[in-house]
Amino acid sequence: MRRPHLLYTAWSFPPSRAGGVYRALATVNAFARAGWDVTVLTVPRAVFETSTGIDPSLEETVDPGVRVVRVDPHATAHRNDLRAWSRLRARNIELWRGIDRLRDLRSFPELTYGRWRPELERAAARVHAAHPVDLCIGTANPNVDFSTGAYLARRYEIPYVMDYRDAWTLDVFSGETLHSWIPGVARLERRLLSSATEVWFVNDPIRAWHERRYGRGDRMHVVANGFDEYEVPLTAPVRPDRVNGLVFGYIGTVTDQVPIAPLLQGWRLARERGDVPASAQLVIHGYLGHTGDGAASGVLGEFAADGVSFLGPVSKSRIGEAYADFDALVLALGTGKYVTSGKVYEYAATGIPIISVHDPGNAATDVIQGAPGWVGARSLGASDIADALGETAGIAACQSPEERAKAQAWGSRYARHAQLAPRIEALRRVVRP
After folding, report:
1. What's the CA gap between 301 and 308, in Å, rounded?
2. pTM of the model
3. How far apart are CA 127 and CA 142, in angstroms?
4. What is the band of 87 on the pLDDT scale with cuts at 50, 70, 90?
5. The CA-based dihedral angle spanning residues 45, 29, 370, 348, taken in that order and rounded to the nearest 10 degrees
6. Assigned fold of 5-226+415-430
7. What CATH number should be reported for the domain whose range is 240-414?
């Protein structure tokens, strides 16, 4: 019997540095290591180079057995070279934008990405003709990624999985249903869900919301993001130089949703009150906004005299080196009961004491609240954040190597392979190579 063949569709795939790329990368690698042939449909490298940016080191972590097919989406949103613009776009941008949106919606009800659907379907048919596909997985967003599996299921009765690393009609920050002005979105989502073999969600609150809205709970599963191990291990040892000054660290993209201003105000207050030693530092790693042009740079500069520094992004494959320089970690997240973030699992794996600076009602609290050395701010008020920083500083200053090892053992349950293995085994019983 031949090896089963997975066709995986993901807009974000190495060398993209967008947040969703890590889940996609880990999933295809897990299937490849479980004995599957894997083909990935994604976009050309140039799309990432002109939009979200790239991390070339990620390409080196793709399993050698994974075949990557890059399909041009013909999307105009990422064409930033004015010399490549049409005369209509250059001279009448509003008229051009209206026509361009119709081109997207003609293929799939999703702006910017909709026109990728016919290209994906043609590419999927070619892949299947050359090497029969046994299972499809699409990870979204964009939601057009789901169209590949639906197409092959309709034409060849191939089972498919919808992997919601985000949500389509749920605002995970507000908890409100998103009512799109684009007709047919809810109807299409319901139809796709009804014929999917499995549907994956990153946490149970999001899964439960979709079950209440669409039913099909027997097909819905939680596949948490988990953490991935790269070139440098995440299990950082206790830092011997902490006696010269504690170092708090934040690693992640600083978006408008991240409460960076309340964090910095709480940090300043904690230093003024003596909750945190004057020698302590707060180091922030990451990108300022998804495209590297966030507005947080000015806010960060205002707090330089308070021991706050911004050191920019770090390579994912060597992120363990950055963690090894920290004595405590700051988990700052946007507000929303459906918000988890993959960062929470990575933080837990390090064993380093963690302070949560986010709404206590976030889904991330359910994940991290049992971790040894975890402290949660009672609110996003500066005084509550300062209190939590002070408590975390006390834990970080005294954590022993044995306590660090205990915390790392607790966090190991969230390894990505532990989340994926049950689903891969279940799907292996479904396919018919």
Report:
1. 8
2. 0.82
3. 21
4. confident
5. -60
6. Rossmann fold (3.40.50)
7. 3.40.50.2000
